[in-house]
Amino acid sequence: MLAQAVEHLIKNIVDFPDDVSVKSHENARGELIRVRVNPEDIGRVIGRNGRTANAIRTVVQALSDHKVRVDIMDVRR
Length: 77
Hints:
Keywords: Cytoplasm, RNA-binding. One of its GO terms (molecular function) is RNA binding. The chain is α+β, with helices and mostly antiparallel strands. It contains 3 helices and 3 strands, in the order αββααβ. Strands 1-2-3 form a 3-stranded mixed β-sheet. The chain starts with a helix and ends with a strand.
């Protein structure tokens, strides 16, 4: 559910929504959600001084009942 929420949020703020990929993994420290976006959209997703990325992380943590980490990467990696 969290990965779908992150995907929905990010696809609505980027210029290339088809390049958005969201994958969720469980590990010992909690859940890890990896988000890949087009290199041209990375600035839009991170935002000025990381404000947009922090807002996404805050929303995800509010929806969750456990520890969740959100990593944002571009598709070149």
